[in-house]
Amino acid sequence: SILSADFGRMADAVQSLTKWRADLVHCDVMDGVYVPNLTFGMPMVRDIKKYAELPLDVHLMIVRPERYVKEFCKAGADIVTFHPEASEDVAGALAAVKAEGKKCGLAVNADKGIDMVLPYLADVDMLVVMTVQAGFGGQSFKQECLKKVEELARIREERGLEYIIEVDGGVSSKNASLVSASGASVAVAGSAVFRAEDPALEISQIANCG
Question: 93-135, pLDDT tens digit by residue?
Fold first, then answer.
């Protein structure tokens, strides 16, 4: 997650992620309404795309994301996820992302259950389970949230679905094995990477935890 990078040197940060052998560039978009913080929007995503060799995983923490999902796709997002409780047209927003030829997904905040995503499981490419409360980087990992990952992994197997499960929030090499064991295959790490003495080693340890 580039939320923990130096915003004044974003191009360097994005290029470094390739050197450190990350798989995705996770972009946290916050509007100060759905969450009490502001980050960046389409222009920053567009500029990041110029320097990114890796796919852009854009996580929208904004109200009424259906208004902007197409624009984020056009700006360079390869995956667009959002929170269903913040949307007035979840199905429409997912369809709009797919119409742009991109992957779509839904996010479950740390204080929410999985009920709101259940009607859309056949329509999503990715489910994001937050292990912190959406809105700020650097929070402590909430291990209890992994129960939601386990349940979503069980449902995926039971129904023969193929969505990817991503865990986002407080992830590091210290807890990545728990993330993997719960059924997730994508781990988002921000502070753990950008504040590490050896970011490449931290990414490697996270990636090889399972």
Answer: 999 999 999 999 999 999 999 999 999 999 999 999 999 998 7
Q: Tell me whether residue 125 is one of the annotated catalytic residues.
A: no
Catalytic residue (choose from 31, 78, 168, 198): 168
Q: Which amino acid is at 132?
A: V
Integer Cα distance of 76 and 137 in angstroms = 23
Q: Cα separation of 33 and 53, whole Å?
A: 31
Model confidence pLDDT, tens digit, residues 110-120: 999 999 999 99
Contacts of 86 (CB under 8 A, 6+ apart): 34, 61, 62, 63, 64, 65
Nearest to 24 by CA among 2, 57, 49, 51: 57
Determine whether 198 is an active site residue.
no
Q: Which DSSP category does 37 fall into? A: -
Cβ proximity of 26 and 190 under 8 Å: yes
Distance CA 113, CA 148 (A): 8
Q: Which of 28, 47, 111, 115 is catalytic?
A: 28
pTM for the model: 0.95
